[in-house]
Design a protein that fits this description.
The complex is a heterodimer of chains A (110) and B (113). By secondary structure, chain A is an all-beta fold. In chain A, 0% of the residues lie in helices and 55% in strands. In chain A, strands 2, 4, 5, 9, 10 and 11 form a 6-stranded mixed beta sheet that branches. Chain B has 113 residues and is an all-beta fold. Helices cover 0% and strands 50% of the residues of chain B. Chain B contains no helices and 11 strands. In chain B, the strands form 2 sheets. In chain B, strands 2, 4, 5, 6, 9, 10 and 11 form a 7-stranded mixed beta sheet that branches. A 4-stranded antiparallel beta sheet of chain B has the order 1-3-8-7, with no helix packed on it. Chain B is globular. Classes of the chains: A mainly beta (110), B mainly beta (113). At the A-B interface, strand 4, strand 5, strand 9 and strand 10 of A face strand 5, strand 6 and strand 10 of B.
Chain lengths: 110, 113
């Protein structure tokens, strides 16, 4: 994998559902993997930065895992709420740049 | 403490003109990165400046240039504007060059007509 790929592209869930997204990234020259939450008309908001293989981070109902050897990260949202509706971006940090995926657009229906 | 601030928020330019976008990082942050975001895509990396030196460059033509000032603020310049340069330009600041949280400004929406 040369670029950062995110799946699914979009997701519609009901309030209370748990969900997860995938981020795939190059497994070489790895420095860090970032997750951002981006609401319309706002700035992207940093959720997590992970640097070590096996890292797991948690913030409230949102958590993330990292596998640098195989080049993937998962973002989990437990008990989705309408206010979780946003685009979730992951970004792969190597020594030269930070490459973003196209994002997963999450819509949580009340 | 103020977050990352960008100016202007919106801008309309004509093809062939030049534009300068400005970014003030969070106090204490020494790294400033610039991104271009078009609808349906993630932000595309343009430049990173750290300690006033260019530390990374994305796949953008030489019409794009940037600099970082002693107070760590930054400017992005785009010459000979094309219609395809119309996009949201985001600036992000972080404390370290890699591996720390990057905080984004709200962006400058550039429209080239």
């Amino acid at each position: 994998i040369l670029n950062v790929e995110q799946s699914p592209q979009s997701l519609h869930v009901q309030e209370g559902d748990s969900t997860n997204f995938t981020c795939s990234f190059p497994s070489s020259n790895f420095y860090a993997l970032h997750w951002y939450r981006w609401e319309t008309a706002k700035s992207p908001e940093a959720l997590f930065v992970m640097t070590l293989n096996g890292d797991e981070k948690k913030k409230g109902r949102i958590s993330a895992t990292l596998n640098t050897k195989e080049g993937y990260s998962y973002l989990y949202i437990k008990g989705s709420q309408p206010e979780d509706s946003a685009t979730y971006l992951c970004a792969f940090n190597n020594n030269n740049d930070m490459r973003f995926g196209a994002g997963t657009r999450l819509t949580v229906k009340p | 403490d103020a977050g990352v601030t960008q100016s202007p928020t919106h801008l309309i330019k004509t093809r062939g003109q030049q534009v300068t976008l400005r970014c003030s990082p969070i106090s204490g942050h020494k790294s400033v990165s610039w991104y271009q975001q078009v609808l349906g895509q993630g932000p595309q990396f343009i430049f990173q400046y750290y300690e006033k030196e260019e530390r990374g460059r994305g796949n953008f033509p030489d019409r794009f240039s940037a600099r970082q000032f002693p107070n760590y603020s930054s400017e992005l310049n785009v010459n000979a504007l094309l219609l395809g340069d119309s996009a949201l330009y985001l600036c992000a600041s972080s404390f370290a060059r890699v591996g720390t949280e990057a905080f984004f400004g709200q962006g400058t929406r550039l429209t080239v007509v």
